[in-house]
Design a protein that fits this description.
It is a single chain. The chain is of the alpha+beta class and 111 residues long. It has three helices and six strands, in the order αββββαββα. The protein has a single domain, classed as Yope Regulator, Chain: A (2-Layer Sandwich). The N and C termini lie far apart (34 Å).
Length: 111
């Protein structure tokens, strides 16, 4: 999934801002990163509660090799249905946005 595909997918859902990050893409709603694309796959931001929902829907966690070990981050693939069903895309995006907003509560920006 490239920048154009991401922008097409989210057109009509929200004005997503896409930035290159670590060889992939970061997807932002304003200042909040709510998703990423790595190796062509879309991952949504999760917490413990929502990760379980993504797992139940058949998703898998974003992982990468770090110091010879497999590390995971709080990002999971959504169900394939989001690519064909705008309501499903809205539902899973809303979960990721909720987590992104909650993770920013109490965080102060440097500056």
């Amino acid at each position: 999934m490239d920048r154009e595909a991401v922008e097409d997918l989210f057109a009509g859902i929200l004005p997503v801002r896409v930035r290159r990050m670590f060889g992939g893409l970061g997807l932002f709603d304003g200042p909040l990163m709510f998703a990423l694309v790595a190796d062509g796959e879309l991952y949504f931001k999760t917490n413990e509660e929502t990760a379980a929902l993504f797992a139940e829907a058949g998703g898998h966690a974003f992982s990468y090799a770090r110091k010879g070990k497999l590390a995971t981050m709080g990002y999971w693939t959504p169900p394939e249905s989001i690519f064909d069903d705008a309501e499903e895309l809205r539902r899973w995006t809303a979960l990721a946005l909720r987590v992104a907003h909650a993770s920013q509560v109490g965080v102060r920006r440097r500056g």
